[in-house]
Amino acid sequence: MAVVPTIQDEKGYGPNGNNVAGLISRLQTADWFSSAGQPKWQVEAEKVIRTFTGLFPFVTDQIGWVTKDQLFVKTVIGSILYVCGLACAWELITDIDGWTMNPFLPLIDVIEQGHWMIGYFDHQFPVL
């Protein structure tokens, strides 16, 4: 059963409780599996992922697209949970100077459209 944050719970997340609760709600309602691997948002997904990886000066590699048939469900679920967990964790610290921009939020947009990075292999970020 999903745990849905309430206004009372938002205070428990700290000064950014509204942002954290809003992100949790967004993640709970996203229907990313119905759009998984569809080409309709690939160009936008690549732009967002390049912007995200550009935040890290040591990342200079390419995006490698994969198909659903090339994936195992556990890999997909694990990568989605990892990014979503990092996005929620970052929201907890966005009140600290220098940490106000959550770099994971654009990746949530990509996930909601049915695409996601599944790791880093052979100097590529495989993207479904």
Folded structure, characterized:
The protein has 128 residues and is mainly alpha-helical. Helix content is 45%, strand content 6%. The protein has five helices and two strands, in the order αααβααβ. It has a two-stranded parallel sheet. The two termini are 28 Å apart. The model has no long low-confidence stretch (mean pLDDT 80).
Task: Explain briefly what this protein structure is.
By secondary structure, the protein is mainly alpha-helical.
The string of secondary-structure elements, in order, is: HHHEHHE
- What profile does the largest beta sheet have? 2 strands, parallel
Shape by Cα distribution: globular
Separate helix tally = 5
Beta-strand portion reads: 5-15%
Q: What is the rounded Rg?
A: 15 Å
Poorly predicted regions are none
Decide which structural class fits the backbone: mainly alpha
Number of strands: 2
List keywords for this structure.
128 residues, two-stranded parallel sheet, 5 helices, 2 strands
Topology, element by element:
Elements: H1 7-10, H2 17-29, H3 42-53, E1 62-65, H4 73-92, H5 105-112, E2 124-127
Parallel strand pairs: 1-2
Helix pairs in contact: 2-4, 3-5, 4-5
